[in-house]
Design brief:
This protein has 428 residues and is mainly alpha-helical. Helix content is 52%, strand content 7%. The protein is built from 18 helices and six strands. The strands form two sheets. Strands 1-2-3 form a three-stranded antiparallel beta sheet. It has a three-stranded antiparallel beta sheet with strand order 4-5-6. α9 packs across α18, α10 runs antiparallel to α11 and α12 packs across α15. The structure holds carboxymethyl coenzyme *A. Carboxymethyl coenzyme *A binds next to α17.
Length: 428
């Protein structure tokens, strides 16, 4: 294949380099386009065809349903690794040795205390506040309590910020939930593993011992791994673009959390469960909702279906569907919502509209059913997604800083008014 692409604009030919990734993905490098064409830009709303960076973290092939972190398949990682190992892998590029993992976790634990004044901020939120709004605000507030997290130029300073946020974030996650439930805000227990600690911080009742349930620990570990990174999606691109102004890790993550909140992105897991509940309340008529999803005059979409990149199947959804069956069975939970979800999936897979548009269940379709079986409230589902995505956001932010990427600043095609004279107010 030629490594030059030729573009003809206004009768003039321009040669652009063609670059190839390690998985033979091909891209036209347009870095010199404006300079050589006298100001011509490309336009691509939603960045459907635009690579915003070169990255060595996550590879996904949407046609084949492949997802790999640093070369390792998601199926193998979900089965054999734990969340902290995957976090290390994503951030530093290699699976850790036992010593490396021990040091990493011990550094995280040593930074896990959140300034007690953060409780006052938590207290100031109304109980009705959505946990994602609270989490984004608290993560941003951490910057004020940890100003050294902003000017991070050396790898050592970056490392300190990374272990700090990995230590403090689960505390914030637990506090957003406990605040809503009127439970006392507490710190974790550093004698526990990362995921066990998260669960204890979330669920410990003030008057009872918290007993770990292995089924729940393993299921949460798996869910967090499956959510840990997904290359340049909406929230990750947000983290990278905010970080590109050198705003600091915590501020970048706070922006990423806001981006994840939306129902077209991470907020879909909450929306899926609300949709399944609504179908159940409405008598379980899945056909009616399929018809609504296909009706172009109806804004309703089948939540948990479709993906910008996966056009065959979402490998995460496959793993989660199996896990949902296993977890519900192990916990002895009989949730009618699972049957509705499976029915809806069957109908969609055999429906022309969905087949033609290559719409398959995504990661969010079954995850909420597992979260619910664990006792996690629906409004917290996207917060759990954020907890899983944290290592991915950190890895992408760190890569962007180490590669010394320039500040993100897209161009636009102006379609507004041309020059006009100012009119005084009495003449308007
Ligand atoms: N229900 C019904 N129709 C759909 C759906 C859906 N869930 N998703 C896409 N379509 C239709 C859409 O109307 C369009 O039809 P047409 O070609 O006739 O105009 C076609 O399929 C292509 O859709 P699109 O909106 O152009 O595709 P996109 O790549 O811009 O959007 C998406 C991807 C995920 C935002 C979209 O599929 C969607 O809104 N899904 C529901 C929300 C959801 O589950 N989001 C979670 C994504 S996975 C977790 C994450 O990483 O965030």
């Amino acid at each position: 294949m030629s490594n030059i692409a030729t573009l003809e604009v206004n009768g003039q030919k321009h040669e652009l380099p063609v670059v190839t990734g390690t998985e033979n993905e091909v891209a036209i490098d347009i870095k010199s386009l404006r300079a050589t064409t006298g100001g011509v830009i490309t336009i691509d709303p939603g960045y459907k065809n635009t690579g915003s960076c070169e990255s060595g973290i996550t590879f996904l092939d949407g046609e084949k349903g492949i997802l790999r972190y640093r070369g390792y398949s998601i199926e193998e990682l979900a089965e054999k690794a734990d969340f902290l190992e995957v976090a290390y892998l994503l951030i530093f590029g290699e699976l850790p040795s036992t010593e490396q993992l021990d040091k990493f976790y011990s550094d995280i634990k040593s930074k896990s205390v959140v300034d007690d004044d953060i409780r006052k901020i938590v207290d100031a939120f109304p109980k009705s506040a959505h946990p994602m709004g609270v989490l984004s605000s608290l993560t941003s507030a951490l910057t004020a309590f940890n100003p050294s997290s902003v000017n991070v130029d050396s790898e050592e300073e970056m490392y300190n910020s990374v272990v700090k946020i990995l230590g403090k974030f689960p505390v914030l996650v637990a506090w957003t939930m406990r605040k809503k439930q009127g439970l006392p805000l507490d710190y974790g227990d550093n004698s526990l593993g990362y995921v066990e600690n998260v669960l204890k911080m979330m669920f410990k009742q003030p008057n009872e011992e918290y007993i770990q349930n292995k089924v729940i620990v393993d299921a949460l570990d798996k869910l967090l791994i499956l959510h840990a990174d997904h290359e340049q999606n909406c929230s990750t691109s947000t983290v990278r673009i905010v970080g590109s102004s050198h705003a600091g890790l915590f501020a970048s993550l706070s922006a990423g959390i806001s981006a994840l909140w939306g129902p077209l992105h991470g907020g879909a897991n909450q929306a899926v469960l609300e949709m399944l509940e609504a179908i159940k309340e409405d008598g379980g008529d899945t056909k009616k909702y399929m018809a609504k999803a296909k009706d172009k005059n109806d804004p309703f979409r089948l939540m948990g279906f479709g993906h910008r990149v996966y056009k065959n199947f979402d490998p995460r959804a496959k793993i989660i569907k199996v896990a949902a069956d296993e977890v519900l069975e192990s916990l002895g939970v009989d949730d009618p919502i699972l049957a509705i979800a499976k029915g809806l999936e069957q109908e969609a897979l055999n429906d022309d509209y969905f087949v033609k548009r290559k719409l398959y269940p995504n990661v969010d379709f079954y995850s909420g059913i597992i979260y619910r079986a664990m006792g996690i409230p629906t409004e917290m589902f996207t917060v759990m997604f954020a907890l899983g995505r944290l290592p991915g956001w950190i890895a992408q932010w760190r890569e962007m800083r180490l590669r010394k990427e320039p500040i993100g600043r897209p161009r636009q095609l102006y379609i507004g008014e041309t020059y006009r004279d100012f009119k005084n107010i009495e003449k308007r």
